[in-house]
Design brief:
2 domains, single chain, globular, 102 residues, alpha+beta, 1 helix, 2 strands
Length: 102
């Protein structure tokens, strides 16, 4: 390795270490949406793919679910609304109407 290459590599490593030490380089965090100002409930199993309000057991943050009606994905709805929606549940572990849990 030439002196110039060594200098560039050393500078790059030093920059990465400085970013890590400063906390600029951090692992992704879980996204929590703002809670609604109205009386709400978390309704599971009705969010369309990519439209969930927060993280799930299989998704790291909001808007990351991969399938429609994913049972552990939820959205905020006005209180009393979830039970009126086909497939909606206030319990993420409740079986689907077809008996499946996922």
């Amino acid at each position: 390795m030439s002196h110039d290459t060594t200098s560039v590599v050393s500078s790059a490593v030093a920059a990465l270490l400085a970013l890590a030490a400063a906390g600029t380089y951090a692992a992704p965090t879980l996204h929590h949406p703002e809670k609604p100002t109205y009386k709400y409930e978390k309704c599971y199993g009705v969010a369309q793919a990519g439209q969930n309000d927060c993280f799930t057991a299989t998704s790291a943050c909001a808007a990351t679910t991969k399938q429609d009606g994913q049972r552990d994905a939820w959205i905020y709805l006005p209180t009393g609304t979830c039970d009126r929606i086909v497939g909606g549940s206030l319990d993420p572990n409740a079986p689907r109407e077809d008996g499946r849990r996922s």
